[in-house]
Each structure stands twice: as structure tokens, then as C-alpha cells.
Amino acid sequence: MKTKYFEIPEDNWGVVVVYDYDVMDWYDLDAIMESFNLPHHKRKDAIRVLSELNTGMTISRFDIRMSIMFISDATSEKQWYNTAFHECKHVADAILEFYDVVYDSEEAAYLTGFMAEQIIELFGEPCN
Question: Beta strands 13-19 and 66-71: pairing type?
Fold first, then answer.
């Protein structure tokens, strides 16, 4: 299991990206989800979903201004980035809700663009 972290300084929000995990990491994934207050029955469902290819999940906690994104293995590099950017949208939605920002505003668009830049910076450019 690997993790990477980036911050959204303007919003004082942290994002942890968890990826490259396998069946040996289920206990650790469960512990992370539990620390984000996900109930036991939802953690079991989440691990089942995350064991599939091309899936992801995001959990956000407003009290600590942090989100965690889980990204499963993918059928291609492009699909992995598709999932990562999809999960970024969920992080953006949480931040916009927390700060009561309009979803179709310029601020929201800048936020999603910033997060896309962070993913590319952390993982490299998607394949062509």
C-alpha cells in the first residue's frame, strides 16, 4: 500500500491518496476508514468495492479538514487517472460544502484544476 499527500493551502485542507494496495492491506485500509469515522458495515462494503478494478472512494472529515481518496488498480493508466480525477471531484464537493461555496463558481473550477495539477505532479502525466 502506498500513500501520497497534498495540501490545498487556500482552504487549509489536506488530501491523502491511498493506492497500490492488495488483499494483504485490507486490515490497514479498514483502520484508515475507521479513523475517518466510517461505520463497520460501510467499511466492509467499501473494501469489497475497492477490491475491484477501476474503482475509488473518498471520505472527508470537516472537523479536521481532511479527505482521503482510495484508488484501486486499474485496467490502464488512463483509467487510473480517470478514477483519481473523479475522486478529486468528491474532495472538491466536500470543500465547497464546508466553505459554502457555489458549486458552479470560478472558485470551484480553480479548486478542481488545482487538485488535478497536484495529482499530475505527484504521479506524473497520464499516458497518451
Answer: parallel
Q: Can you tell me the distance from the alpha carbon of 29 to that of 49, in angstroms, rounded to the nearest whole number? A: 12
- What is the identity of the amino acid at 118? Q
DSSP 8-class letter at 68: E
Q: What is the CA radius of gyration of the chain?
A: 14
CA distance 50 to 47: 5
Convert the pLDDT of each residue in 5-31 to its tens digit.
999 998 999 999 999 999 899 999 999
Q: Distance between CA atoms of 7 and 120, rounded to whole angstroms?
A: 14
The confidence band for 34, taking pLDDT boundaries of 50, 70 and 90, is very high
pLDDT of residue 125: 74
**Domain residue ranges in the chain:** 2-123
* CA atoms of 74 and 92, how far apart (whole Å): 22
d(CA 87, CA 11): 18
At 61-75, the pLDDT tens digits run: 999 999 999 999 999
Sign of the alpha-carbon dihedral angle for 9, 11, 12, 14: negative
